[in-house]
Design a protein that fits this description.
elongated, binds pyridoxal-5'-phosphate, 410 residues
Length: 410
């Protein structure tokens, strides 16, 4: 990967007019007034639909796209995405309720997650949602529920693959995992399922997230198809559904380069050609971050400027309680600065080095550490780019009982 500095990944999506950042053609200052408070998240519909269009253009047409709701469960956003994609992926009863309120058919909703309660399984069976089985125990509970409700539950087996993928920001497969059934145990599980009334559609193989390297992604998908092929020999029928995960990442930090989507698409086309046995199988790619991550900004306000022993602090009303990831505490190993700007004076030529912090009484509450920015004053808007995924819903809003952030979809 090239180490060209890229201090403002995502900045290209939001033009600047009269020194003010524009979102969906509106000045950020006007949006702040419309929302009526800071902090808030703002999401741009057009950027989301553009991104889904790019995915459709680059990937082989027979790959179906699902949106993973956990990346951003804002109800309006989920409603907006539903008709643009082929299905939704959920991981809880709450997400199921959201998904079932959209036009997406229940049969195109799939339910993953290692700790599904009986209540959740019952609701999924009753609604006709596809359930990704994560363990033998879950399969047995589901079979009992399926008998009791007299409804044949549609399932896939979520497989914990026997490979790990290079370059994934977050690994979800390979080695010992709480997710999925170890691939070597899958044949026995398939045999056990054949003695139940569960309808096994196929497999769900998910190996990780936030990968920026097309070559590694294609390699992982090669191994995914090889594994699916090997496991499907244990099924009595050809498999009807293969969910191959996704893992496509977005650039956050200096030096990170945008994923080459066309290279992923070309690689996928070659893989599909090599597996004619899956010609009639529904192939699903499930993505969260890649669809929405770049379409969102987090906006908070400078309350105070403060000098301390040679450093300038900008104390804001926003912080890790709304945006855990920007503080570096959402699974990151080393804290790096997200791209940020001062939204109402983006191009001021008088700059300074500042540490942007939140109001919480913890040294973890950092939005940007020692970053060169236009000199900001109280009332100015601090903007964090690349905040459309794993933002508000992935943050401890209750911590310290500050006001909640709002969300707006433009
Ligand atoms: C979180 C998750 C996703 C979405 O991951 P992204 O990196 O946001 O694309 C997809 N599938 C499963 C099973 C997940 O748990």
């Amino acid at each position: 990967m090239r180490s060209e500095p890229r201090p403002h990944a995502g900045m290209e999506h939001f033009p600047v007019r009269d020194n003010v950042l524009q979102v969906a053609g509106q000045p950020l200052t006007a949006i702040a007034q419309q929302v009526g408070q800071t902090p808030f998240y703002v999401y741009d519909r057009q950027l989301i639909s553009d991104r889904i269009g790019q995915l459709r253009a680059a990937l082989p047409p027979r790959i179906q796209l699902h949106y993973a709701i956990k990346a951003n469960p804002m109800a309006g956003l989920v409603q907006f995405i539903s008709p643009l994609v082929d299905g939704l992926d959920i991981a809880s009863l709450g997400e199921m309720r959201l998904a079932l309120q959209t036009p997406t058919r229940a049969g195109n909703i799939s339910f993953a997650g290692p700790g599904k309660s009986n209540e959740e399984l019952e609701a999924a069976v009753a609604a006709g949602v596809v359930i990704n089985i994560e363990s033998d125990g879950e399969m047995q509970r589901l079979a009992a529920i399926s008998d009791r409700l007299d409804r044949r539950a549609q399932i896939t087996i979520r497989v914990n693959p026997d490979f790990e993928v290079k370059g994934s920001g977050m690994k979800m497969g390979g080695g010992p995992r709480p997710f999925g059934v170890d691939s070597e145990k899958v044949p026995a599980l398939i045999a056990a399922i054949s003695n139940t009334n569960l309808d096994l559609l196929g497999f769900h193989i998910y190996w990780g997230s936030q990968n920026l390297c097309a070559e590694h992604i294609v390699e992982a998908q090669e191994m995914t198809f090889a594994l699916a092929s090997q496991l499907s020999r244990h099924c009595s029928h050809p498999i009807r559904l293969l969910n191959i995960g996704g893992g496509l990442g977005i650039p956050y930090f200096p030096g990170e380069q945008r994923l080459n989507l066309q290279q992923v698409g070309d690689g996928m086309a070659q893989i599909l050609d090599r597996y004619p046995e899956f010609a009639a199988t529904n192939i699903v790619m499930e993505l969260g971050r890649y669809m929405v991550g770049e379409a969102g900004l987090y906006v908070c306000e400078v309350l105070e400027r403060k000098e301390s022993r040679g450093e300038t602090f900008l104390v804001t009303n926003g912080g890790l309680h709304h945006h855990l990831a920007v503080s570096g505490n959402f699974g990151q190993i080393i804290r790096k600065n997200y791209p940020v700007c001062i939204g109402n004076r983006v191009k001021d030529s008088t700059t300074e080095r500042a540490i942007i912090v939140g109001p919480l009484c913890t040294p973890l509450d950092i939005l940007a550490d020692k970053i060169e920015l236009p000199r900001a004053r109280p009332g100015d808007l601090v903007v964090v780019y690349q905040s459309g995924a794993y933002g508000l819903s992935a943050s401890p809003q209750e911590f310290l009982s500050h006001p909640r952030a709002k969300e707006i979809l433009l």
